[in-house]
Design goal:
Elements lengths: L3 H18 L2 H16 L8 E5 L5 H9 L2 E6 L2 H13 L6 E5 L15 E5 L6 E3 L10 H4 L3
Parallel strand pairs: 1-2, 1-4, 2-3
Antiparallel strand pairs: 4-5
Helix pairs in contact: 1-4
Bound molecules: S-adenosylmethionine (SAM).
The site of S-adenosylmethionine has 17 residues, from helix 1 and helix 3.
């Protein structure tokens, strides 16, 4: 039985990117501001990045194009299917590992695996970057090399 969020995002997946791409607020303000927050924390290449709750892979694609090895996780298979199609079309499949994982249980991921853990969550422009300020995700430091 999918969670409410998973069902919602499976339904949204086919139109998710268009909602961002066709809205000037997102393309001209929201995403540039988000990127400005992310880019400050980027480790030097080569590096491993976890994009947790990465959805259709919008930030995964940006990072993979820069040369990062990215693990993209999400609870929604629909979102991950869209991501996979884009990643393969861009020739980035060799750099991206896609895993269906609930962010509340990421025990399948080995400790100390990532140089950066990123989770860009909602349209409120929440960008969480290791170390996590969010108490509900206490396992985050475990995945990141310190
Ligand atoms: C607003 S979208 C953001 C997607 C992506 N980070 C981006 O910036 O475009 C939120 C994502 O979180 C995922 N999500 C929601 N609950 C989750 C959970 N418990 N575990 C993993 N992913 C989850 C959704 O499926 C969705 O893809």
């Amino acid at each position: 039985m999918p969670t409410k969020s998973e069902a919602y995002h499976n339904h949204e997946a086919p139109v998710y990117d268009a909602k961002y791409d066709e809205n000037p607020f997102f393309t001209k303000v929201y995403e540039p501001v988000t990127w400005d927050n992310i880019r400050r924390f980027l480790p030097p290449l080569p590096a491993q990045v976890l994009d947790a709750g990465g959805g259709t892979g919008r930030w995964t694609m940006v990072l993979a194009k820069m040369g990062y090895e990215v693990t993209l996780t999400d609870i929604s298979q629909g979102m991950l299917d869209v991501a996979r199609a884009k990643i393969e079309a861009a020739g980035l499949a060799g750099q991206v590992t896609i895993l269906r994982q609930d962010i509340r249980d990421m025990s399948a991921l080995a400790a100390d695996s990532f140089d950066l853990v990123l989770s860009k969550a909602t349209r409120s422009a929440t960008v969480r970057i290791t170390p996590p300020p969010c108490a509900s995700w206490p396992a985050w430091p475990r995945w990141a090399r310190t």
